Amino acid sequence: STPAIHEDRIYFATNTQKGTVYALNLSTGELLWFYRLIPPPGSYCNIMSSPVIADGRLFIGADSGYVYCFNSSGTVELNVTLYPGNYTERINGNEYEVSKTSALGALHFASSGSKADGAEIGFSYRLSDSWYSSFGLFLESAMGLDELYWTYYVNSEMPWSAMEKVEMNDGDILYLIYGTGFETPENASTMIKINVAVRPVGIESVWVSSAARGGNIMAFVNVSTIEGWYVLVLSGINAEGDNIAGVATFYSKGDLRVPALVAVPQQVKTGTYKLYAGIYRLEEYPDNLISFFGPVEAGIR
Predict the structure, then answer these.
(1) Would you kindly state where each structural domain of the chain is located, as residue ranges?
(2) 120 exposed, middle or buried (CB, 10 Å; 0-12, 13-18, 19+)?
């Protein structure tokens, strides 16, 4: 499609199965936000039309059969699932360790791509550390909006602390409000609403080796947890229906790289196996799966 330019932004879309609308800063090329259509299995949501801007709104059609309208005001509602651990914010050459389950963590992980209403939405944000010693980090810009002020609420309360100092609970709602600084979730004209789920354990990545029949697949699973005992299950299947599995028990109270072995019987067929990782609390195994990851592929020879 042909890009559209309005003020200091450029908008364009992609003719792919998951058609995506992008907004970039015209001067710097910074990604401000994206809106990616998620079609049903076997379907396509290509965007071949060009964006049109009228009355301050962006309009564009897609193969989903809908015309989409984007406005600089209104509420964007997102969903995010948070797991224990820390991540790093880099600001003006400084690095800050931030809890993944904080309000700032909710903003960070929602911004990288959150699914809502049949689409995946992501956006950029910018923090300032100029008041870090006396207050903490504060939000300067989100989605390219930076002429007014960003404030935040958790549920119905405005915390009097920086976002990285406020921990979120399962079921909390984070409201990011753009305006004069006096708006509330009830009367805000421009707002990002983030529905937060907090889980006790998350799987960040899984590495597996290849193996010969009669041997073992070596696996390493990177997890983030609250303190406790857990059971890790790695299981997989090939195209013919042969299956393999391994189990490991571990104790963790943060970030941990968990080793595991998956036994490969002599009688299974060679080829590629798709492996999945699942984690249970030890006292709830095998009834309550609390985290799931996969597939990753392992070769059997």
Answers:
(1) 4-198, 201-300
(2) middle
Calculate ∠ Cα 139-100-189, nearest 5°.
35
The C-alpha atoms of residue 33 and residue 61 are separated, in whole angstroms, by: 18
- Cβ–Cβ under 8 Å, residues 294 and 277: yes
The SS3 of residue 290 is strand
Distance CA 272, CA 17 (A): 27
DSSP bridge partners of 17: none
* Residues 104-136: tens digit of each pLDDT: 999 999 998 887 777 899 999 999 999 999 999
Stretch (H or E) spanning 153: strand 149-154
pTM given for the model: 0.79
Contact of 238 with 270, CB cutoff 8 Å: no
In degrees, rounded to 5, the angle at the alpha carbon of residue 198 between the alpha carbons of residues 196 and 202 is 125
Half-sphere exposure of 283 (CA within 13 A, CB side): 1
Per-residue pLDDT tens digits for 34-57: 998 888 888 888 888 899 999 888
User: Torsion angle, CA of 275/276/281/283, rounded to 10 degrees?
Assistant: -60
The topology under which CATH files domain 4-198 is Thrombin, subunit H (2.40.10)
- If you count them, how many residues does the chain have? 301
**Matching residue, tokens 């708006």:** 183
| d(C-alpha 229, C-alpha 39), whole Å | 39
Give domain 201-300's CATH superfamily. Immunoglobulins (2.60.40.10)
DSSP structure class, residue 108: H
